[in-house]
């Protein structure tokens, strides 16, 4: 089961489905490519409806036993899994980098530690969640509530933060007593596969977690439309989410959809530019810009626009692109050749529309070693002189491309930020607290960061509005989503 890995000589790893506590091969497999080289580095199952059926059956059979365990027992198993994962941080970080293209250093600093934290956070949080009760004196009755698990939870996670976002769904589903069938992205399956080893070692009973790998239109669709999976948590694109929603309607499934964004940073003339520029460069290009929360539009007050753009472009040019194993590299490879071409098509569109490309847009000139020359690399790209109705300003790019444009007043910028179909997050840069509060009230997004970006407290809700999603995730919201609350009335 263990991945054989050697940088100079690649040995393919075979990912298998994980059903009822065992690793199961499938007749058909898919190739998985390493983004930094363009080479096949793993094979994954090409799961179909029959594989999903086996996984759901295993989850159903395990549900009664798992839901009957105490919160403390479930918490202990997740905490043990967190400890095991933390001990194996370095190897998981390397697998995540090879599978997704991100720098190993980033996976060590963010992806795997956050996956560990997700497990510990919900393992602890469930122990402090309480049910409600009231006394109806005139009727001499007590009302109280019971939170009960929903059943088999279907979890579909994306390729950009593979283990990070899988555990953000998996942990609350498990601690609330549900069993799980998960379908990670076919582009990044390895760390999910390896995490199943962790769950076995931690003592998770067979069938409580099952993972099927493969295409969304086969395995994912079979999971979403299965009548015995009453709950679906999906993170991914808006187009796929519509298919998920339609497939779920027949069975009135509980749905959580965490989707895309066209996030804006608004920089007022009194902003701390040193802090702001450093943060917005990071928010634009972290993880190659492949995070739903990344900044895609930067609106800068006209009085400071020139000063901002000069410093922003210079700092962007200083970002090193290339080998994910180089600790000095900030930008790794994009997830796939197809996605790279899609992102570059927006730069081509900018050229056609007469926008100004201030830096980036080509991998030409990158100092890549021979084994990385076929990788999916792209320089971080800054574009200005873009119209608000351009696709560059309205569509999710999901790559290292950001548009920077000026604005003149507060009313104008509120309208412009809100003019897109997405509403995930925004950041506001100002030293005026009143300005920040006014903007926070009126921006049509799920999260507003003020003078910062990506500071997250898992106790508070996370999610978007408009076409950025349905529902919220976080301690209370996730517990609510993964349980059904029953009211009991007892007359004394």
Automatic annotation (TrEMBL):
Top-level lineage group: Eukaryota
Molecular function terms from GO: oxidoreductase activity, acting on the aldehyde or oxo group of donors, NAD or NADP as acceptor
Residue numbers annotated as active site: 258
A Pfam family that the UniProt record links to this protein: Aldedh
Domain Aldehyde dehydrogenase: 25-488
PROSITE patterns for the chain: ALDEHYDE_DEHYDR_CYS (PS00070), ALDEHYDE_DEHYDR_GLU (PS00687)
Keywords: NAD, Oxidoreductase
Family as reported in the entry's similarity comment: Belongs to the aldehyde dehydrogenase family.
Protein name according to UniProt: Aldehyde dehydrogenase domain-containing protein
